[in-house]
Amino acid sequence: MKIKLFLFSLFILISCKNDKKEDIQEISTQVEISKNQQYLCKDAIIAIIESSKESIEEREGLLEFIQERGGTSYGYMLEACPEPYEEYLDKSDYYEFNFHASYPERMGVISRYRFHPEKLILEKYKVVENDYFTIDYDRSLINKFKSNCY
């Protein structure tokens, strides 16, 4: 039985053409380029978020505050986007990020932001009102967004 399985496997390997391998490699490269483009896009939107007055104010002194309480850092996590490139991302008409503090046992969400690519609108979630509100940002970053995301 083992000999038959071995011979069958050998036959399959010999009968496969090399061009199939090249096709798979080309597709893999295209996917990688697409992922890299998505990461550049994400970085452009984070720059837009960080340029807003609200984001600047909430980050002021935050790292020291987190570290005094045993945390290590803070950061942004993409939760949804128009073209999800990872399994965990939701599909939506906008890019949605959470801004969180990292602790050894958890990641606590501090705030949420949405960027609407069609309207070029940035919004921040207000817990008390349970709604998103438009906030201003550095409009000169729109070119970076357009070149990285389209």
Rg, please?
22 Å
Structural class computed from helices and strand pairing: alpha+beta
Helix content: 40-55%
Q: Per DSSP, what share of the residues sits in E-state strands of 2 or more residues?
A: 25-35%
Sheet with most strands? 6 strands, mixed
Overall mean confidence score, pLDDT: 82
How far apart are the termini? 55 Å
SSE topology string: HHHHEEEEEEH
Produce the secondary structure layout.
Layout: H1 2-15, H2 18-50, H3 53-59, H4 62-68, E1 73-81, E2 90-91, E3 95-103, E4 106-116, E5 121-126, E6 131-135, H5 142-149
Parallel strand pairs: 1-2
Antiparallel strand pairs: 1-3, 3-4, 4-5, 5-6
Helix pairs in contact: 2-5
Distinctive features:
single chain; 150 residues; alpha+beta; six-stranded mixed beta sheet; 5 helices; 6 strands; 46% helix; disordered N terminus
Task: Walk me through the structure.
46% of the residues lie in helices and 28% in strands. The chain has helices at 2-15, 18-50, 53-59, 62-68, 142-149, and strands at residues 73-81, 90-91, 95-103, 106-116, 121-126, 131-135. Strands 2-1-3-4-5-6 form a six-stranded mixed β-sheet. Strand 5 and strand 6 form a beta hairpin. The longest helix has 33 residues, at 18-50.
